[in-house]
Design goal:
Strand content: 15-25%
Shape: globular
Number of helices: 12
Number of strands: 13
Radius of gyration: 19 Å
CATH topology: Rossmann fold
Order of helices and strands: EHEEHEHHEHEEHEEEHEEHEHHHH
CATH class: Alpha Beta
Catalytic activity: dTDP-alpha-D-glucose = dTDP-4-dehydro-6-deoxy-alpha-D-glucose + H2O
Number of domains: 1
GO biological process, one term: nucleotide-sugar metabolic process
Helix content: 40-55%
EC number: 4.2.1.46
CATH architecture: 3-Layer(aba) Sandwich
Distance between the termini: 49 Å
Strand order of the largest sheet: 3-2-1-4-5-6-11
CATH superfamily: NAD(P)-binding Rossmann-like Domain
Largest sheet: 7 strands, parallel
GO molecular function: dTDP-glucose 4,6-dehydratase activity
Structural class: alpha/beta
Bound molecules: nicotinamide-adenine-dinucleotide, thymidine-5'-diphospho-beta-D-xylose
Family: Belongs to the NAD(P)-dependent epimerase/dehydratase family. dTDP-glucose dehydratase subfamily.
Length: 339
């Protein structure tokens, strides 16, 4: 099989590409990525010389480029990870989220339809369901939960999901969608909560917690997510949506305190800052469909997964210290210093 993975130089896509290249030496994995601020080929060092791996630089929203690529490569399967992925950036500047997340997805759908791909898989998010109240721990997102977005990011991801479903219903494109909760693990860009807090705590810098830190996220180890996607592209039913989550709910404050404890740093580093606009209260996934229909089960619980992740950041300082320069510095200055 020839599998086109978009966004494979990012956090989840990078973990997925490494997993697939090693797990399926008989499949060809093509990584298409535009190398935005979030794309980093250092993540792919371990597979770059493997015969079943190829990197192509390009923009998923560039129609001519994408159609040329499909004409030449004729992929059997397309898995779309490529996106603008950071909620705070979408609040500052929504436009690129529409271009990449919506137009990029429809361009890939069009090419997949034209060249008859056997499976188009869209990597989506639980954020399309909006949020759950903090005082109703009995509620979870299921695949039937109505879409009800809060941020420009989640709205762009929901729009993309609706186009995927339209291409299935209208044109019969064999699609699947996965909606997962917050991922954590190696190679996550240090603008996201966990690597941001690890890198700042190590430098004895203040840790910016939005609002009162009581918002809840449902943490999923990136490798459990990769295995779920592998299962869905092979065994998932066309036209279906699958939620992916490991029942690991934590408040942001709990996560930050866990990191400080593991690093032996004081809680006095915590600084409460202005809340995110439209900040979603709680995400919590019900993964019963994926577990019951496809037999998925997560291997990581959060306590061991976060300990391993912290060790990874301690042992791979070069990877993230290189990132903490250039464009990211400008962004960080604007978000956390100038505000
Ligand atoms: P990321 O920001 O780390 O990586 C995104 C990648 O996409 C980067 O390598 C970037 O260069 C590439 N890219 C961006 N625009 C592109 C374009 N126009 N053409 C080609 N490549 C482009 O993101 P991530 O955290 O790895 O997320 C991957 C996917 O998973 C996204 O679709 C995101 O919405 C979804 N998701 C992420 C999480 C999470 O917790 N990180 C949770 C749920 C869903
Ligand atoms: O500095 C911070 N301080 C803070 O309190 C940052 C960066 C975040 N937070 C809070 C906001 C959220 O409640 O931590 C929580 C997690 O924030 P992010 O890491 O930005 O993730 P989130 O907004 O939950 O979205 C993530 O999960 C769903 C991904 O970035 C999305 O791509 C994915 O769809």
């Amino acid at each position: 099989m020839k599998i086109l993975v978009t966004g494979g130089a990012g956090f989840i896509g990078g973990n997925f590409v490494q997993y697939m290249v090693n797990e399926y030496p008989e499949d060809m994995i093509i990584n298409l990525d535009n190398l935005t601020y979030a794309g980093n080929l250092e993540t792919l060092k371990s597979v770059e010389d493997k015969p079943n791996y190829k990197f192509i630089k390009g923009d998923i929203a560039d129609r001519e480029f994408i159609f040329d690529l499909f004409e030449k490569e004729r992929p059997d399967v397309v898995i779309n990870f490529a996106a603008e992925s950071h909620v705070d950036r979408s609040i500052e500047d929504p436009e690129i989220f529409v271009r990449t997340n919506v137009l990029g997805t429809t361009t890939l759908l069009d090419a997949s339809k034209t060249y008859g791909v056997k499976r188009y898989h869209q990597v989506s998010t639980d954020e399309v369901y909006g949020d759950l109240p903090l005082d109703r721990p009995d509620l979870f997102f299921t695949e039937e939960t109505p879409l009800h977005t809060s941020s420009p990011y989640s709205s762009s991801k929901a729009a993309a999901d609706l186009f995927v479903q339209a291409y299935h219903r209208t044109y019969g494109l064999p699609t699947t969608i996965s909606r997962c909760s917050n991922n954590y693990g190696p190679y996550q860009f240090p603008e996201k909560l966990i690597p941001l807090m690890i890198s700042r705590a190590l430098a004895d810098e203040s840790l910016p917690v939005y609002g009162n830190g009581a918002n809840v996220r449902d943490w999923l180890h990136v490798l459990d997510h990769c295995k779920a996607i592998d299962l869905i592209i092979r065994k998932g039913k066309e036209g279906e949506v699958y939620n992916v989550g490991g029942h690991n709910e934590r408040t942001n404050l709990e996560v930050v305190k866990t990191i400080l404890k593991a690093l032996g740093k004081p809680e006095s580093l915590i600084t409460y800052v202005e809340d995110r606009k439209g900040h979603d209260q709680r995400y919590a996934i019900d993964p019963a469909k994926l577990e019951n229909e496809l037999g998925w089960e997560p291997e990581y619980n959060f306590d061991t997964g976060i300990a391993q992740t912290i060790d990874w950041y301690l042992n791979n300082r070069d990877w993230w210290e290189n990132i903490l320069s250039g464009d990211y510095q400008n962004y960080f200055q604007k978000m956390y210093v100038d505000k």
